[in-house]
Amino acid sequence: MRRNSKERKDRAPGRSQGPYQEIIGRTWIFRGSHRGRVNRKNIIWHELIGLRVRVVGSTHPGFVGIEGYIVDETRNTLVIVGEKVWRVPKNVCIFEFETEDGTKIKIPGERLVGRPEMRLKKRWRK
C-alpha cells in the first residue's frame, strides 16, 4: 500500500473529483419541455432545475453575485453551476430567476424551503 506517494495526488485519474465538476466551463443549457411554462405566479410550485438563477441578496456577503444554472435541489439548498459549483442555502438568500422569455423573477429563499415534491402540496397566500 502506497501512502506517501507523490504521483498519487488525484484518487481517480481521468475523472473529476466532485459531482457536477465535469460541466464547469461548458455551455450548458437545459432544454426541458417545462422551462417555457414558468411565470411569476407558478414558479414556487414549478421545477427549478435547469433555470438560470442569480443570488441578488443574502445575509452572508459571499453568496451575493453567484449566478448560473440550477442542477440540483434539496430541501434546504440549491446547487448552482456557473464558473464553479456552489451549494447555496435557500433560507438566507434572495434569488432572481430568469425565464425563457427573459423576464426576471425575484423570490426570497424562505418561500422555496422544502423538498421540491412537498412544495407542490403547500398552500400559499396570494
Q: Can you put this structure into words, describing what you see?
A:
This protein is mainly beta and 126 residues long. It has a domain at 37-119: SH3 type barrels (Roll). Helix content is 3%, strand content 28%. A 6-stranded antiparallel sheet has the order 4-3-2-1-5-6, with no helix packed on it. Strand 1 and strand 2 (67-73) form a beta hairpin. The longest helix has 4 residues, at 116-119. The protein is globular. It starts with 51 loop residues before the first strand and ends in a 7-residue tail after the last helix. The mean pLDDT is 79.
Q: Which features would summarize this protein structure in a list?
A:
RNP1; SH3 type barrels; mainly beta; Rof/RNase_P-like; globular; 6 strands; 28% strand; six-stranded antiparallel sheet; Ribonuclease P protein component 1; nuclease; tRNA processing; 1 helix
Short description:
By secondary structure, the chain is mainly β.
Query: What's the helix-strand series?
Result: EEEEEEH
Strands of the widest sheet, in order across it, are 4-3-2-1-5-6
Helix content: under 10%
Strand content: 25-35%
SS-based class: mainly beta
Stretches with pLDDT under 50, minimum 5 residues? none
CATH architecture of the domain at 37-119: Roll
